[in-house]
Amino acid sequence: MYEILILLPVCERHGDLCILVIHIDKQVFKLLFNRMAISPRSDATFSNQKSTPSESPRTKKFPLTEEEIFYMNCRAAYLTVFKSSLENIISKDQLYLALQHAGRNPSQKTINKYWTPQTAKLNFDDFCIILRKEKPTSKAELLKSFKQLDVNDDGCILHTDLYKFLTKRGEKMTREEVNAIINLTDVNADGKFDYIKFCKLYMTTNEQCLKTTLEKLEVDSKMRRHQFGNHIEGSPERDPSPVPKPSPKIIRKTDQETFSNKGDTRSSLLSATRKFKTSVSFTITMGANGNRNSKLTEPNLIKPCPVNLWHCPRGSISTSKNSSIFEFPKWHKWCLLPVYQDWQYMQSKGCFFLEEDGEIISHQYRMQIAQRSMVYLTIKPLNLSQVEGKPSPWLSVDTALYILKENESQANLQLVCFTELRNREVFGWTGELGPGIYWLIPSTTGCRLRKKINPVTDEAQLVYRDQTGKLFLTKEFKSTLSDIFEVIDLDGNGLLSLEEYNFFELRTSGEKCDEDAWAVCRDNFDTKRNELTRQGFMDLNLMEANDREGDPCDLWVTLHSMGYNKALELTEACPFVIDIYAEKCKPKIKAVHMEACSGQLEKAICKSVLSKGDAKVMDGYENIIVHTYSCDTWITSVIENKSDEKVIIHINNELSKNCVNNRGLNIFAVEVGPKSTMVCQHVMPLNERQEWIYYCIYSLIS
Question: What sections of the sequence does the record tag as coiled-coil (predicted)?
């Protein structure tokens, strides 16, 4: 599907533009003709100009990065439709219009992908995520699309052919709309439509539209002060000035005004806080650790202590302020016993998958404990076969496991604990669990498992033919399939059951394989004990390639769904493994869902942070509380709104050092509903081997 947005001058006198939206599905063209008015300009408007913001003292000193330019363009497009980036997109029409102003060409299919029946609203952050995925059309793509109708290969399309396509196929245009296109004198002559001139005009016009919007944003200082959901001038990584000394007090308006008038380079940023009713700040300095933590002892070295760390009496076990190191009372001694000799063990694998919209989904599990027992649980990234010279980014992804007790029904789950102890990449928990059903919900902050900005251009070869024409899988693709087999083999027995295979099918095709289809699979591919072998899985993919006569299109759909890029690098998924040891009974674990990391997980994170984190009340607004939990690996903040009204909280992380958060934005705003709590952000160090400073200001917007 080619998707093209074309902006053409209809009336230079009034500066009107027409928007031609061309959707090409195979050789069927669908054009929609709309009108949009922008500010008047001269003929020089359509000269080829680079779309960059005008220079300010800051840009002269520190040129804008690609990331900053991207967010500036996002902001400019958003504010063409809305008064503030705090306003939400509340309809498909608004989303469509905002995307058009950003130079995109959203088809109905594209709109439906981001605006589902369950969607009530999208915010500015969602808009930025969409723009990362929906790239503007290049001139080469545009020319390629039109060339499909160029029967004479002369750069033109006959009006008769163009008219036939526009009025007879797909979403038909009216005669008046087609005539409006054909009557554009700059691109029509002698009964032909000159699409080469058309494409050139499209490129220059599109650039000028963006430039005009950016200039409008630059001069409108009032508009810029409302930019809460994005980057603002003054990046902390460029600013040589030191971080202010931590202050335990709540920042009041008078403090903010005094601070912002001291001539600091961030004064433009801090002056915006005069719009806030009140603010509260957190400062946490974290030391470098370099993954050398040893707070969690491996199970084959020691026997876990007979203490439930979650339910221990106040004061019996203490922790350092910013650490997960537990200090046990003097009466407790660790027993150096090899637990694997007498403790019973179960394992299950799973995976975090990064969706197109940036959401993370993963397997979720039910665990059964038959009798009261000491239990030891860990989660860590799964170590797959690593090719020399090829990165393994998933190994640095943080993982956690939340354990919830099922009481009477699945809807009534009670948080028991989470894996806050750490030893290198392993996160674990040890304590006593009573008999019953428990839900294990994996979690990752999203700070390191996130969409990559730079796309891979070189595509790996998946299949090839020998001299006889027979089709084979390449060595590199077979290695990747072997890794995928390792991930979807949840119980690790070297075979795929129907249940395990169906998790794979749901992920890659959205459908399940029924018993009859599985029987056909068993008859045609290598199986053992009614389960698919690794070789059988390879042959299944080879058959798929043969069915497409060597076209790897469907194979790439599978690979992308499993988190692989065009270079066969696993960049948008993180496989993990869960290990469970129980002293007095054999634990049972089963993957039951593959769902978004929200819902029950969000509730569990909020409850854990409220229980273990530090709390600060907004000055003068006792019903609005910011909770912050910190461990050596990450910091999580939760906003609690006890009032009967929704509130909007502005978050500013610009003074943090060596930090990255899951939202990808230093400055943003969140809306917290009445009588509710929400996870505001997760923060991690960019470089664990260096000190990192979390400095965040939370402000209530008036």
Answer: none
